[in-house]
Amino acid sequence: MIIKNDVYTNLTINTLDDLKKLKPFVEGSNLKVNKTQIARELGVDARTVSKFINGYTKPTKRNRKSKIDDFYEIIKELLSKESIQIFYYKRVLWQFLKDNYNLNCAESSFRRYISKHEEFNNYFKKRRKNYDSSIAPMRYETKIGQQAQIDWKENMEFVLKDGQIIKINIFVIILSYSRFRIYRLSLSKTQDILFSFLNGGFEIFGGVPKELLTDNMKTVMDEPRTNYSKGKINNKFKQFADDYNFKVCPCIAGRPNTKAKVEAPMKLLDEILAYNGMLNYSELNQLIAKLNNRINSTCHSATGKIPVLHLKKEKDFLSELPTVKIRNLYTIKATSVTVNPQSMINYKSNQYSVPPEYIGKRLKLQTYDNQLYIHYNTDLITIHEIKNQKLNYHHEHYVAISSLTLKHSAEKVEEIAKNNLEMIGAIYKNE
Known about the structure:
Elements: H1 23-28, H2 35-42, H3 46-53, H4 72-78, H5 90-101, H6 107-116, H7 118-127, E1 147-159, E2 165-175, E3 181-186, H8 191-205, E4 211-214, E5 221-223, E6 232-233, H9 235-244, E7 247-250, H10 260-267, H11 281-296, H12 307-315, H13 324-329, E8 334-338, E9 344-347, E10 350-353, E11 362-368, E12 371-376, E13 379-385, E14 391-392, H14 395-403, H15 410-428
Parallel strand pairs: 1-4, 4-7, 10-14
Antiparallel strand pairs: 1-2, 2-3, 5-6, 8-11, 9-10, 11-12, 12-13
Helix pairs in contact: 2-3, 5-6, 14-15
C-alpha cells in the first residue's frame, strides 16, 4: 500500500470493504491516500475508492419496488368497508385483478404481498370462514365412469349493477374421476329445474355415471338418510334415475365430507361476489360460464390432470344416454324464434332485444324463474326478465342497433340511445 510523503502502514487492502480501515488515518492526520493507485490495483473507479474510505457499505439486499405496488390503491379500495364487493380468499382477489386490471404476477407472490401488508391481511383474517383444522376426512377415489356428485350453492345474495339485490342458487355436478364439472345459475331450485340441469349435464358429459351422490335435498329425498334410516327417495326422482339408469346414493345427513369432491369446488363460486354491483343477470350467467370453463381447463390440484382433457377418457366408461324422447320429458321446453329486422324476438305479444348480429337467425327460447333464456345453438346469448311491456331492450343491444343507422361518434350514439330508451320505456310501458 503506497501513501504519499513516503509514509507507509502495514494495512492490507484486498477488497473495497477493507478501505474503511483507512478512514481513521485520513481524518486523524495529514496523510493522503493515493486513491488512483488503489483504484488501479482493485480495478475500480477512484470515486468508488473515496466512497468506501468515507464509510460507504455496499447493501447486501436490494430494495426493489414490487410491481404489485402499482395496484396498492386499487386493492385498498376493493377491500375497504365502503366496497360492496366481497373477497373471501386472496386467490379470488388475485384472479379478479388479473381479469380486470391486467395484474401480471404469480399467485404465490401476490399472497406474500398481501401477507406483508397488515391492513390487507387483516381483511382476509376477518373473512376467513370457520373450520376445524383437526378434521381430516378420509380420502377415497372411485372407478372411472362410476360416480358423479351434485350440490347447490344456495341463497347467495348478489347485487346487480342497477342496485337490485337478488338471491341466487348455483347448481354443480362433477364427475368424481375426471373432476369435470358443470355450473348452472337459477333463482329457484324446483325439481323441474333440477331435472333439466341434470339432463343438460349428462348430455355435456356424453353419458351417465353409474351412481349419483347427493345430499338430502327435498327435490331428491322425501325422508333424509341418517345413521338409523336409509331414507326415502322421492318417487319422481326415482323415476328420473330409472329412466337415466343410475343409482341414487344419498349421504348420511350432517356428513358433507362424504361428497367432498363437490363441496370443495363450491368455494370457488365465492369469486362471483367480487363482482357485486358490476353485472346484470345476463352478465352474471356469462361470468359463471367463464369461471366454469377456466376451472375445467386448469390442472386439478389433487389429480394433477386437466379435467376437460380427462373427460375424453371418462366418456367411454359412462352409460349411454336415454332416448331423445325420454330426455325431452325432463328438459325445460325450448321454443324456436326468428330475430326480426329490429333485432327483437317475440314472446307472448311482447318483444325482447338480442344483439344485432343475430338479425334473421333462428334462436332457441327457454323460460323459467320468470326469465327468458335466449340461445344460439348451445351458446347463451342473453337473458331478459319477463315483463308486461311491449318493447324490452337491454341498453347495450339498443346502442349496438343504433350504431348501425346513426353516423355519429360513439359518445353521441350512447347519448341518443339513452334518451330514446327513456322515451320508449315511458310510451310502451303497460299499466
